[in-house]
Amino acid sequence: MPRIVVDVMLKPEILDPQGKAIVGALPRLGFTAFSAVRQGKRFELTVDGEVTEEILAQAREAAETMLSNPVIEDVVNVEVVAD
Amino acid sequence: MSETPLIGGATLAPVDSRLAGARIGVVTFPGTLDDRDAVRAVRLSGATAVELWHADTELADVDAVIIPGGFSYGDYLRAGAISRFAPLMTKIVDAANSDAKLPVLGICNGFQILTEAHLLPGSMIKNDHLKFLCRDQVLRVENNTTAWTNAYAAGEDITIVLKNQDGQYIADEKTLDALEAEGLVAFRYMGGNPNGSRRDIAGISNAAGNVVGLMPHPEHAVEAGYGPGHTGTDGLGFFNSVLNTLLGDK
């Protein structure tokens, strides 16, 4: 079954408290190379059958209207993944 | 739910048919926690509480609506994001934006739902310290001209309960400047910012003043013996305010 992957990230100007907590914890395990972490969301929308342009357009609309909140988040990626 | 005294000896307001004629709806979503307290607060103010279910398609002739706190849909996706699409929310948004200007109060998760529904600007993200915080909280009433704040004095400090994890109010600078310029900041945190909210904002209203949202909980501060400091009843003003609005006293 093909899936449409939607990636959502907090807008760059919005502080990510969870990412801050993660970057603070990484050095405790010896991971010292990372100066910042931003945490996002990945959605996988499964399609029964072929992903048409219309279905992809639906996914883009869902991403903008429901899967993300445009006040705080950006949809950074919408792509089809074939299995 | 015809009984009111669930705890202690509630001193109910004297039955006043004028007050009881005001029908205040309280919406329950899957995962709502504070609907019973909101219903109780409405009854203590003397109005008639009307229980509404998120899947209802009619507003049951209510004169105002309270969207209470909790974790509707488990805060899945984003706090309030799925509730916003409930059938009843469409009705509430339309009624709030109509000429009738239905008074709508969103408390905590209810505030989050109102921002997701675009009835109020901005959004809430996780507290800057990442912890769930529960404490008595002093707020300054910045705008006492809304449907839900007119029983307070302008600049009055009130103490009600704050309890949340996603309580950090954020909006872009342009939106924040507009809120300040138009006097739409309804409440500000006093005695230290509890969660990183921009400009210490605890609650806001829309331009018409009929829609108000705030993170702290007035419905938990309506009864002597159970509110902040065990005596605080500062939250009653919200419920008295909407009665003033509906009965034309203000």
| Low-pLDDT stretches of chain B | none
Run of helices and strands of chain B: HEHEEHEHEEEEHEEEH
The CATH superfamily of chain A is known as Phosphoribosylformylglycinamidine synthase subunit PurS
Describe the largest sheet of chain A. Answer: 3 strands, antiparallel
Q: Helix share of residues of chain A?
A: 25-40%
How far is the first residue's CA from the last residue's CA of chain A? 6 Å
* Unreliable residue runs of chain A: none
Number of strands of chain A: 3
Side-by-side strand order of the widest sheet of chain B: 2-1-3-4-11-10-9-6-7
Q: How large is the radius of gyration of chain A?
A: 16 Å
CATH topology call of chain A: Mth169, Chain: A
The CA-CA distance between the termini of chain B, in Å, is 31 Å
Please, how many domains of chain B?
Answer: 1
- Helical content of chain B stands at 10-25%
User: Based on the structure given, which CATH architecture of chain B is correct?
Assistant: 3-Layer(aba) Sandwich
How much strand of chain A? 25-35%
Order of helices and strands of chain A: EHEHE
InterPro entries (chain A): PurS, PurS-like_sf
Pathway (chain A): Purine metabolism; IMP biosynthesis via de novo pathway; 5-amino-1-(5-phospho-D-ribosyl)imidazole from N(2)-formyl-N(1)-(5-phospho-D-ribosyl)glycinamide: step 1/2
Organism (chain A): Arthrobacter psychrochitiniphilus
Family (chain A): Belongs to the PurS family.
3D structure, described in words:
Chain B: Keywords: ATP-binding, Cytoplasm, Glutamine amidotransferase, Hydrolase, Ligase, Nucleotide-binding, Purine biosynthesis. Chain B: One of its GO terms (cellular component) is cytoplasm. Chain B: Part of the FGAM synthase complex composed of 1 PurL, 1 PurQ and 2 PurS subunits. Chain B: It catalyses: L-glutamine + H2O = L-glutamate + NH4(+); N(2)-formyl-N(1)-(5-phospho-beta-D-ribosyl)glycinamide + L-glutamine + ATP + H2O = 2-formamido-N(1)-(5-O-phospho-beta-D-ribosyl)acetamidine + L-glutamate + ADP + phosphate + H(+). The complex is a heterodimer of chains A (83) and B (250). Chain A is α+β, with helices and mostly antiparallel strands and 83 residues long. Chain A has a three-stranded antiparallel beta sheet, with helices on one face. The model of chain A has no long low-confidence stretch (mean pLDDT 95). By secondary structure, chain B is an alpha/beta fold. Chain B has one domain: 3-Layer(aba) Sandwich (Rossmann fold), CATH 3.40.50.880. Helices cover 22% and strands 23% of the residues of chain B. In chain B, strands 2-1-3-4-11-10-9-6-7 form a nine-stranded mixed beta sheet, with helices on both faces. A two-stranded antiparallel ribbon of chain B has the order 5-8. The interface between A and B is medium-sized, with 12 and 20 residues.
